[in-house]
Each structure stands twice: as structure tokens, then as C-alpha cells.
Amino acid sequence: MEKITLVQNAHQTSLKGKKMKVGIITFHRALNYGALLQAFALRYSLSKLGAEAQILDYRNPIMEDMYSYPPFSQRKNLRDKVKFLIQGKSELKRRTKFEYYRNKYLNLSNELHTEEDMKLVSDKYDKFITGSDQVWNYGAHNFDKNYFLEFVNERTKKYSYAASFGISSLPKEYIAEYKGVLSDFAMCSVREKQGLEILSALGIEHRRIDLDPTMLLTKGDWLSQFNIPVNPKQKYIFAYYFELTDTLRSYIEQLAKKTDCTVVFVGNPLKAPFCCKCKALKTADPIDFVNAIANAEYVVTNSFHGTAFSIIFNKKFYVELLKTDAKVNSRIENLLHIFSLENRVIDVRPQKDEVDWNLVNSQMSEMRKESLDYLKEILK
């Protein structure tokens, strides 16, 4: 059973004595740690406030295709076939663990595929929320208007929570469409200041900025919800990256040599990526990811959620800003700026192991309260 303790006398979330039902649409089908952890965090936070929160199990065809894993018989070139023979067993196990996590922690609705499916759920919930993650990035799903809650009837209020556009400005050809789909939201909550600027440019008056959902939970919440023991058997560096650049590899190897730490990383490469003692987490699911950060001595990353969880767990962490991906950089830079942690960036400023975590945690606590107050307002 899921370990959620509902708050007694929680903010009024009932209609005629029943819990308010909230439908959430987000990127829960991505094979991505941050995506699934933020989905859980928002649903958990709403449930803790007394709502019956459910993730809409919407299957966007572009997302489904992006994360598909064809069987051996459908692989045409020799390299793909060899790669499947070497990595396939571990990858299939990892995907099975991801699916188990979704079913256990996300409280999914029935599968939703078509426009008609989406319209049918419109009357099943009292409120709808879109977010978090890059749900408003037109490039991620070919401007699928379900992520803008276009299927919701006029009687039901629509909100977003920490939604991300994934870009700093909209192309001219999309401005009118975005204004059209966002103008009837009761409130547009975004994750980054760039998103706030986009909303302002669109003339959306009901706008605000909120913490990524993963930061709505404290370190203690994450440990208790996933039954994670903090008892590292050895000191290690957790390396989590979207792209292993020469800069990042060199930095990790130097840090490993300096600290005599093993490097632990997520993945199943054909050969070891580091010239030092290392260990691959070949079948890691989202809980394994949180565990890896919680018990790490150091974290080195170029990922937004790798950075976010490093901050949540007060880790000695170092961040690479990718020269090839300004979009990822802007999200990470925004997060570091909020907590005055810009000096964690590799090759920009001297890194210091000393961080005033009391100050960071105090600021996060204040921002968490503001974001939870917003969720309470939604549930009125």
C-alpha cells in the first residue's frame, strides 16, 4: 500500500461530503526519472491536502513512439540487433520496473487514446491541472491541445502547476494559438521565469511561478514514501547526465581520483564510460534514482532533476551547462539562481564544497509553503 497520510481537517476539498476529484495531465509515460517523480510529487501533494488526485493515463502517439522499444524481430540493421542482444534483457527489466512504479504510485485513470476518450473524462473530475514538466512545449507533442486541457467542458475550472514551455520565447506563428488555449485557465502556474515572461507577452493576467513538484516534498517525505534507507556502504559519486561530454567525463574522473570514490551512473553502455572504478545501474527505476542521490557523497550532473534532487538532499553537487542545449541550461540556471547556487557550475566559478544549506532550506521551505497554498486555493 502507498504510504500517504492524509491531513486531518485538510483544506476543504469536498463537494457534498465527498473528496474533490482532480485530474492531472502530464508526461507520465516518459521513460525519464524526473518526469515520473514530478508526476508522483504533484499527485501526492494534492492527495495529502485531501483531494482524490489521479493522473490521466493519456497516450500521446508521439510520446509513445519516442519511448517505444522494438523487439529483436523488428530491428533491421546488424548494430541494432547486436545492441539488443547485449542490452535488451536489462532494458526490458528497467521498463518493467518503470511500469510497476506507474501503477503503484501514480493512481492512473483508465487508458485514454482518442479525442472522444478525453471528452468522456471531462465530467468525471471537479478540477483539472496540467503540469509539470515541458507540457507546454509544442515541439514535444506536436502542439497536442490535450495538454492545454482543451477537452475540458466550460463548467470545469482549469489550472496549471509549474508547467514549462521548454523555450524562452514563442515563434510568431504559435502566438495566437497559445493565447487561445491559455486564456480560459483560471490560473497559469509555470516553473521558470521565462515561462512567466511568455505569459506576460501573451497578455495572460492570471499567472504565477511555482516550485517544481519534486520540491513540494521534503527530503524526509521522499525517504519515507519510497522506504529509502540512508546508509551508504561506500562513498561514491553519482553521475547523472543526458549527454556525457568530454568536459563532464574529465571532471568526474578527476573528482574520483581526488576523493577515491567509485563512480555510480545510470545506463547500460557497451563499454565503461570512465577510466576509473565505476558501477552501472542498468535497471534503475525512479526509486533507485532517488536512492542513488540520497546515499551519494557527490553528485555530478547536467540534468534539471539531477540538480533539483541534489538540492533537496543537500548534496555536494556540481553541474555542467551543456553547450549544445540552451533549453536545458536555462531551466538549470533558473533553478540555481533561485537558491543562489550559481557557483555549482563546472568551469564557470570556483566550486566550494561549503553551501549554506540552512539558508537554502529556509528559502525552499518558504517557496514550498507558497506553492502548497496555491494548491489549496485550487481545491477550494
Could you explain the architecture of this structure?
The protein is of the alpha/beta class and 380 residues long. The protein has two domains: 14-217 and 366-378, 3-Deoxy-D-manno-octulosonic-acid transferase, N-terminal domain (Rossmann fold); 222-349, Rossmann fold. Helix content is 41%, strand content 15%. The protein has helices at 33-48, 61-66, 78-105, 115-121, 138-141, 172-182, 193-202, 219-225, 246-259, 286-294, 304-312, 326-338, 357-378; strands at residues 14-15, 18-19, 21-25, 52-58, 108-112, 127-130, 157-160, 188-190, 207-209, 236-240, 262-266, 278-281, 298-301, 316-319. The strands form four sheets. It has a five-stranded parallel beta sheet with strand order 5-4-3-6-7, covered by helices on one side. A hairpin with a 2-residue loop joins strand 1 and strand 2.
CATH structural class of the largest domain: Alpha Beta
The name of the CATH architecture of the largest domain is 3-Layer(aba) Sandwich
What is the CATH topology of the largest domain? Rossmann fold
Taking pLDDT < 50 over at least 5 consecutive residues as the criterion, the unreliable ranges are 1-15
Give the biggest sheet: 5 strands, parallel
